[in-house]
Fold:
Amino acid sequence: MKYKYLLIGAILVLLALAMAACTGAAPEVAETAVDEAKEAVQEACPTAEPCPTCETCPPPPVVEVVPFEEQWANSPHNAVDAEAFVHWNEDDPAEVPASCATCHSTTGYVNFVNGAEAVGVPVGETVQCHACHDAAAATLSEVTFPSGAVVTGLGPEARCMVCHQGRASKVQVDEAIEKFGLTEEVDKVGEPVGDPPANLGFINIHYFPAGATLYGGTVMGGYQYEGKSYDVKNDHVEGYNTCVGCHDQHTLELRVEQCAVCHEGVASVEDIQKIRMTGSMVDYDGDGDLAEPIRDEIAGLRDLLLVGIQSYASEVVGTPIGYNPDTHPYFFTDPNTDGQITEDEAISDNRYSTWTARLLKAAYNYQMATKDPGAYAHGGKYIIQLLYDSIEDLNASEMATKVDLTAANRIDQGHFAGSEEAFRHWDEEGEVPGGCAKCHSAEGLPEFLAVAGEQSDGVSGANTPAHVANGFMCSTCHDEANWPANYPVAEVKFPSGAILSFNAPDAEENVNANICLLCHQGRESTVSVDRAIGDAGPDEVPVNAEGEPTLRFRNPHYFAAGASLFGDEAMGMYQYEGQEYNGRNMHVQGFQVCSECHDPHGLLPYVDKCAACHGGTEPDKYRISTVDFDGDGDTTEGIVGEIETMNEALLAAIQAYVTDQGLPAILYDPAAYPYFFEDTDANGEVNGEEAGYAQWTPRLLRAAYNYQWVQKDPGAFAHNGQYVLQTLYDSLDDIGGDTAAMTRPEVKAAPEQ
Structure:
């Protein structure tokens, strides 16, 4: 300890000397004191040991057994003789170019995930352990795709998608088309551009672009046509939504044994390729086979597309084309027009070079569907949409030999129509609002039921925002904890506040049908319309203090079949004060609930069963009354015709009413929100520039609401036809329409249930 104090003392002495020098005052200090302090310090510090040399350093710790080494060693990531790793062996220098090194060498991958500059890498590397187990790779949570789209919030699958995303997208295809001036002239062969001049060439998505297929329309890996909507990320059941959820990350093999848990009879990869899930209810390739796997549906459409590509190239471009999947650049001129590219034809000098924009788009999608062999599982419906749209676009050209798409289908039915507005409406926002999530997301219904189960009334559920989906999943209606049973729903609360049920909650078909009522009930009712109107006079346009109209159109929403069916009990349509209305429509035994009349997955009605009593399979011709309700003198037309005539008369009466009231002319467009518009240019049609109608009176709102209800429940004639006719008749009568020749259906006594 004394040495410590001596050292401190010496330092203080030196500091004192320095301070004195600064002030000019030199204190008298004995030199012997300083010398003694130095000697004391030297005695206190032992002589340092020399640093060990490399020969004497202990060896670094070595793992005797590398985890999963054998699995990795036999995987495609370590296939030392594969083209993916030997392609550049004969180059000079023999190295993987910087543009390829990220995915074809370990050094390149590590450089990429660490943000280092891309450089060429000597050949000989595969994708080794430390590529994916690098510290930066292990924390990677987002990936940027060729389109520029960034997918965030990823787990270990991010490491896979760095490479399995393809190297092109719609963006690169459009950029090339624009560069050659073909954006508008899609059937023109581009003139060479650049120095030296170059022709438009084929753009290759590259190989195994599984991530691009999986994320679909979100990352635009395929060529997506303007005006079309596409499925986004393909969601499977929880735990099997990612690369590593379905593939062993070391062997890359599919976890077949896990698939077998739900997919009965699956014991091999070949069995997985045969899967066709219940949500695929249409014949995509038009070959008449609804039982074949999705893999075969894709193959069928791909074959049709190649026929279209070859017809277009010959008839429109004037240069026959062929395809060879094994030789770059894949598309070649077909000089003998036999449709095949032989080895002697698959050479660089014979590459196809007379590309038009239309041909390039179709060929790009053909290649994407070919180079992802697992596309059927990664995002089969997205690929189907791309193939169908490519064929449709080729058919729009002047080629004489069109590809017949009459029996083919792009869109699934109802709950699984993932590319349609009901599920794509929120793509730009990135999530489905809580108020819409119950019926427009995959997980919304289970969440709603869970919340409802916690409420005192057992029916008042709620939702938080949900991620956008491609339609429903099996787990939307089926309780995974009690698979394959549906979630039990004893009763349902409607917008009017009525709590209704198909009764007999112990009967399986009724429990299942109650699930349907949760969404197919509309979002408005007589109660909400009256609440909006308040105490305003029937022909008054209510305004606020600034003179602005306050009443807005109340949209009942779409396919409110349950409310139509329950009639007066649900009060879905606007029911006029002082009038009586039919309640629940009770059909014959066995045809009284949703799931007895409709396929619960495809949603189409069982028309073959209807034919037994109604004679024929055309429901729009069915009628069970001889009364001429619409007054047109035709008592043989189906109830559909009766409703249509009365609804057409209602629209005419609505338009006449606003004229009589001195209000702006009104137009209706069933495909554009808010459906009713002001005819500002007085041309009698909606042209996209009109504002939504704002001059609502209570009388006008009631009539327009019922008109919209009929438009948005196309099955209303079957769900409760005479209830619908009662409300239409009353709407016409209230707004001043001519009902002299019409007949209001009599109110039926409530049947025993």
About this structure: The two ends are 100 Å apart (CA to CA). Confidence is low (pLDDT under 50) at residues 1-34.
